[in-house]
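Let us practice reading a record.
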Amino acid sequence: MADSFASKLGRLGSESLVYGLSSIVGRLLSFLLQPYYAHQFAPAQNGVQSVVYSYVPIISIAFYLGMDVAYMRNASNLSESSVEERQRVFTAPMAAVAGLGGVALVVALLFAPWLAPLMKLDATSFRYMLGIVYTDALLAVPYAYLRMSGRATRYAVLRLLFVAISIALNIVLIGRLHWGVRAIFFANVVANLTVLVLLLGEIVRQFRPAQLAHASWRSLWKYALPIMPAMLAVMLVENGDRIVLNYLPEPTAQHIYGMSAKDVVGIYSFNYKLGVVMLLVVQMFRMAWTPFALQHARDPRAPQLFSRVLTALTLACSAVFLAVSLWLPELTRIPAVYHYVKPAYWTGLAIVPVILLGYVFSGIYTVVTTGLYIERQTGVLPWISGAGALLNIAMCIVAARSLGMVAVAWATPAAYALMAALGTWRSQRVFAVPFEWLRLARVGVIVGAIYALDYTLSPQMSIGVGMLFKVFLLAAFPIALFATRFFRHGELRAMRALALRLRPSVL
């Protein structure tokens, strides 16, 4: 049984690498733009684009309509279905996104002069935001089709192409033509439209308007609608901190932070994005996890498999947390790094470990709520994520007005921890999984002890001694795991094979 689990975990890991390759490279390349923005723009200017991209995933809920997830749920049962049935399952969600999203786009554009000030944005940035949201939405179902049909390579190529076009346009428009912040938005829309054109072949082959009359609209909306408020709440958890900071009264921003509200957003967002490595780990896992979990849902040993997945994910995230939180402060002490970015941005560096922790809990939440998707019990998700969103917004409002950036950042891991706890409780009632909580607690204690040692002792050391000490602390993590007999039979072989990128069948 252990070998079987190792093989399936290896497959999930390999699929995560394949699907995550585009996200890894794409995110890393996009991340390189963040120092570029911090070099080109003052914090307040950077704050404008940060606010736009904080609103984008929230507004996207009204454009996506939960149809990408609903499509994947329906497509997971079509392994032996006819071509017509596959086309029907694709056509309905694609039509919903294109049609209803198009109506929402037109209405929002008409009312842009009145809606933009409500979001503390200028009308031009608001209109670009709408263009980004709608073109993103048009790509959602086709991307889901590529994932569910196993076309990982094409998916990865298109995602990388989007990043390449976006980065090239950013450099030309900002560095040479001096467009300013709007160049970021224009590049995003152009890159989305380019990918959409390249996906037209798949869309035309699968989209059959004549089948709309025979689509199972009731079951589609029954699955998708509960996802929308749940996704909205999750997006509020992930972006609520920057939105709250954007609405800080200027006297409060000057009193607490000594700068304008847009400056605060720009500095906070820049440091928030320094947690990109953990985001990559969690995101690439999610890309592979959804189809993997749905395909293995009816396996008799699926609960045990899912339990091992959560343990493996937590272990990987813990290693990333230590590597980033220990070494990032040292990198910023390098003069070339420190002075390339405007020094004001580094005042928010202390939020990075907190943001990393938030991503860890978001990954845990993804796994523990899988049973709700499998058993079609998504109606409870809005309540779970809604509780997290309320906690997040409440903490952000209180912290932003009196406690500072680090306290605001703590709202994200607190919200995800609550959501993970509630999600576990509800999911276990319909799809019981024997999660290895004691093993996870052991990892948490080890990581916490190592981080506490670094936080307490490193500031008192010289740079050279401090770097040696950090090497020792990183080495102490696997040593502590072995010393406490953390690993079980077959797990080390699975990890070794995955590290060597061996095929899962070798395990």
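A brief commentary: The radius of gyration is 23 Å.
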